[in-house]
Amino acid sequence: MIRDSLRALVHAALQAAQDDGSLPSFELPTVEIQRPKQAEHGDYSTNVALVAAALVRKVDNAKANPRQIAQAIVDHLPPSTILGSTELAGPGFINLRLSDQWLQQQVLATIAAGDSVGNIDRGQGQRWQVEYLSANPTGPVHYGGARNGVLGDALANVLEAAGYSVQREFYINDGGNQFNIFAATLYARYMQQFGHDEPLPDQGYPGDYMIDYAKRIIEQAGDRFVAQPKDEVIQQFKALGREIVLEDLHEEVRAIGIEYDNWFSEQSLYDEGLVEQALDYLDQRGELIRRDGAIWFEASKYPKNEKDEVVVRSNGVPTYLASDIAYHYDKFIRRGFDHVVNVWAVDHQGHVPRMKAMMQAFGLDPERLTILMYDLVKLIRNGQEVKLSKRAGEIITIRDVVDEVGADAVRFNLLTRSPESTLEFDLDLAVAQSNENPVYYVQYSHARICSILARAASEGFDTSELPDNASDILDLLTHPAELALIRKLLELEEQIELAVEKLSPHNLTYYAIELARTFNAFYRDCKVVDAEHPDLSRARLLLSRASRVVLAKVLGLIGVRAPESM
Questions:
Q1: Dihedral of CA 173/177/183/186: which sign?
Q2: Strands (E) located in 384-470
């Protein structure tokens, strides 16, 4: 990364200044490289001279002038093609400007990188799992869940680009009471199709989709369940209903471009004895107690947990926490993931402390489990919020919204805010073909680049191969708009690193908009295809190709198409 190269240069200068006596001996500090708040102050800056001054004072109690230390660092910077100029600022900051010549040559490096452009090796192959959009298999996923899915899926893309080995997982909540209610509702709807007055169970699912599910069972099995005992049929409908819902779920998530590596059943934790195994593991570690006929997890021993939690009720039935414990026992201890990210809605935030306590009870670093919380989505049409109510039978599904505005608009818009922020999705804006629609603006910019390259090819420029003099003609890229575009292209590495640090890819949508805007400014100010200046045209076409590579990459990271025409 550029910052790493600059950090190494500054560190080498500090060492050289100490070696020749320009600076006294002290433990060299970590060199932080930041972007100045104002672009005119340079591409990067460092406050290392201020940090070093404090260290010098500790060594000999002498006063140390940060600006003098900064000057010594600048005087000892080793020769480098990446660094163009430096300047001192304020009490001791060093502003760093990248070399124009080095910037120009990065155009070729970007084209050569192709799909791997911007990738970094932060993860170094660590095994991470991202679990997202997990839901009860009791019906279609309503639109609010789309934010969960898009957030988790884009994060998984970013982690892979940062050098992590990532597994994408859907946790099927098919082991709890909600699924029992679902199966009982399905039975009622099935019997009603044959004229039986079978009422819905308490808190049953009233949506019309349950009637559709019942009809699909009838298509498969006819009336053969009508005469069978109710309890037996409900147990059979668990499997039949689960199969129907999961088939639809696969289609729904594919509608927004999501493919999972693994679908994990909660019921399998019970069927394979993992709940008992995980609780035995905690029991052997002294983490469980018996009280009032029940088995409790001593969560109160751990920070932010005020009370113990029941894991097996007095009637012998495990609680939801028991299956959560077993599931994470499987993730960390059996499957051995280095880190797990669970994407949860904000209304589950009260469960986070006990999940951290669970990690400590396992003897694991709780920081290896991240619970990524996201807030609600408000769907807006004609300036009014569209209410979502699955339990009331009024449900707007992911597929409904994708059919209305397209998967690209869904994914892009749901990533335009940080996860903890409430998000408003304007359906009218999402389909508008105007610059006010961010996904349209970015995709149109990519299509524009493709159109420019196609027009250049029609006018005799070879846009598929690199010119023999490619390295030389890039020196012609001296216009401020050209250099600004190259700088913007080179931000991709930092944007990927930032998304990993925050465990949120929402910054990538803003970067995509800024990159599109910067390219359009370049296209406005610089004539790209100009037969009277062929070498300059070839250089600008190379810059356009590099821009297409980076714009396609960032769109790919957030799961949005990069169209060649619109």
A1: negative
A2: 384-386, 423-426
Q: How far, in whole angstroms, is CA 17 from its chain's centroid?
A: 42
Per-residue buried b or exposed e for 291-315, using 16+ beta carbons within 10 Å of the residue's own CB: eeebbbbbbeebeebeebbbbbeee
* Cα angle, residue 295 at apex, residues 293 and 298 outer, rounded to 5°: 130
pLDDT of residue 396: 83
Q: What is the per-residue pLDDT across 121-139, written as a single tens digit (0 to 9) for each?
A: 999 999 999 999 998 888 8
Work out whether the CA dihedral 9, 15, 20, 24 comes out positive or negative.
positive
Q: Give the strand order in the sheet containing 384-386.
A: 384-386, 377-381, 423-426
- Residue 61 has a pLDDT of 65
- CA 47, 48, 53, 59 dihedral sign is positive
Give how far the C-alpha of residue 166 lies from the chain's centroid of Cα atoms, to the nearest Å: 12
Q: Which residues contact 241 (CB under 8 A, 6 or more apart)?
A: 137, 182, 183, 186, 213, 217
Place of tokens 């594919």: 254
pLDDT for the residue numbered 389: 44
In this structure, the dihedral spanned by the alpha carbons of residues 125, 126, 132 and 138, taken in order and rounded to 10 degrees, is: 100
Amino acid letter at 200? L
**Dihedral sign from CA coordinates of 50, 51, 57, 59:** negative
**Shortest CA distance to 78 belongs to which of 32, 31, 16, 3?**
16
Looking at the DSSP assignment, which residues form a beta bridge with residue 88?
Answer: 94
Instruction: Take residue 330 and report the two structure tokens written for it.
Output: 């499987």
Q: In what order do the strands lie in the sheet with 44-46?
A: 44-46, 93-98, 83-89
> What sign for the dihedral angle of Cα 494, 496, 501, 503?
positive
Domains in the chain, please, with CATH? Answer: 2-98 (3.30.1360.70), 103-114+434-557 (1.10.730.10)
Phi, then psi, of 315 in degrees rounded to 5: -85, 5
Parts of the chain with a pLDDT under 70: 61-62, 388-394
Count of other CB atoms within 10 angstroms of residue 555: 25
Distance CA 178, CA 323 (A): 14
Q: Which candidate, 515, 424, 499, 561, places its Cα nearest to that of 154?
A: 499
Report CA dihedral (518, 520, 523, 529) to the nearest 10 degrees. 120
CA distance 321 to 106: 52
Enter the DSSP assignment of 413: H
Q: Give the C-alpha separation, 214 to 143, whole Å.
A: 23
